[in-house]
Amino acid sequence: MTLYRPSPAHIAAATRGADPACAFLHDLDALRRQAETLRRPLPPGVDFFYAVKANNDPRILQALAPHVSGFEVASAGEILRVREAVGPQARIVMGGPARTADDIRTLLAQGVERLHVESLHMLRLADAVAREVGTVLPVLLRVNLTGPVPGATLTMGGAATQFGIEQGAIPDAIAILRDCPALRFEGFHFHTVSNDRDAAGHAALCAAQLALARDWAATHGLDLRIVNLGGGWGVDYADPDWRFDTDAFARALFPLPDAAPRVQFECGRIVAAYHAAYLCEVVDLKRAHGRAFALLRGGTHHFRLPSSWGHDHPFVVLPRAAWPHPWPRPDITGERLTLAGELCTPKDILARDVRVERLRIGDRIGFLMAGAYGWDISHHDFLCHAHPQRLFFGAGPDGSAA
């Protein structure tokens, strides 16, 4: 698996006249290869959905559509985004808490395959809406395991979170479901952890969840067709060259072919993260109370991930020779500095106290692994700064740049 680093040609494409550069750059060809690489170790018949929440740009969805089983969405808006970008043929499954009657009407109208139900109330609401529409809605019951569940950056299950039906209440959910004529039980959904970097441990967790689903089906006489094991295949922002061992994960989870139930995954970060960069130009250098700062055109209003996760995001310095001013060009050489954005808040930090060999005003910073949970989770219009360019490189359907 490769890692996208901006080329001189891509950097040049992101420069608009004399304005400081600020852009998201995406390599769509590498993104397609990434999806194929992740799917390849999985046995035939295993579904690999792309989690749209990671990056919902239509060009990303269009690039991935031929290479994934379908799309996992968490809102009615994401359903419409997929339909507009990819068309009526795209497979869609829907999860997420806080569903409304309008959400359910939208998923029924748009041909979503099934709903991952997260509460007892949602079961009853989904049944009422499906009866109102005059159809039967396939559902999975999302489980919040008893836990604890170790090893991941984010935990949605095995702890007191707002996600899923707690494990002890699953028999109640099954009993309610039997009295919901407009719902059809198809299986269980487990999206317990996010960004698990332990392939063997994650395979063991998935195997335990699969066994639990089978036990429940046997105990309650259910026709278990599908077990969705969520995502959680990790990336390491501290080591951009590290990769989740998908081959070892697949070998451990699927030692022998097993046709029932059908297994599904819904991965986002590991699909989209590696093949985009966030490019920012250095517009000032300064010192305050013994610390050095590089101020960037851009910041967390475009790329909130480093702030939300509290990490120093990986980056490369991209030197620029041009200096248009008559005064000496400020620089910082061989010391530590903080990469800060243009917002009026001390929290607008993308990397703190990181060492650089040399950095000058006018150089560019390329933040790597910027394709997932960057622009999509950011507060774009705080202070009304200009939005970054969003450039997509790679052959489109007609062979041109996308």
TrEMBL record:
SUPFAM superfamilies hit by this protein: Alanine racemase C-terminal domain-like, PLP-binding barrel
Source taxon at top rank: Bacteria
Gene3D superfamilies named in the record: Alanine racemase (3.20.20.10), Lyase, Ornithine Decarboxylase, Chain A, domain 1 (2.40.37.10)
Protein keywords: Pyridoxal phosphate
Modified residues (N6-(pyridoxal phosphate)lysine): K53
Family statement drawn from the similarity comment of this UniProt entry: Belongs to the Orn/Lys/Arg decarboxylase class-II family.
Name of the protein in its database record: Diaminopimelate decarboxylase
Source organism of this protein record: Methylobacterium gossipiicola
